[in-house]
Amino acid sequence: MAVTAVGGFIDAYTFMQRGGVLAAGQTGNIIFLSVDLTQHNLPGALVKIMALLFFALGVALVTLFKHHHFTHYWRIMILILEMMVCLVIGFLPHSMSNLLVVPPLSLVMAMQTTAFSEIDKQGYNNVFSTGNLKKATIALTEFANGHDRRQGRIAVMYFEIVGSFAGGAIISAFLQEWLGIRTIWVVAGVLLLIVAYYAHTLHRKYGD
User: Fold this and answer.
1) pTM, entire model
2) CA–CA gap between residue 13 and residue 183 (Å, rounded)
């Protein structure tokens, strides 16, 4: 839930602070790209194209790394990279081109969602909500139709994930009223807490 809240938080941040671009929501970026092209907004279109490319690059990197990881802690390295990117982005002024700001965030968002892609053997996405909402609704319908308690638990899980994403986006929007571009430092702090908790959990499980 915390990782998913981060996904919503960063998308709201880039949308409000960086020209209406989504770091992770590439479906939205494709739509915005089509608008930019019809309005001849080439700088805006280029930012969205680069966000798409860097997102794809992030997915590819983690997919390759999954075949060669040498430690149970490999996902922590991705979270630390994401934390470092957020720290740096918070120092960059509005005058800095979005072309230099959004793609690195798209890269780490893609790495995050590819590295953390399952909960209790159920696939999910921590930087989008459409698929999670669909799965929640299907599970809820199956529960209502057949009174399958397992489907009920799955529905609750997915609705919690959707709520986490929405909550992260809402908190981000409110904090930006006071902190502006520095708001992303809040994400860096949350990621630090996630890293500490996840490392502790892995240490208890594997002991190395």
Assistant:
1) 0.93
2) 8
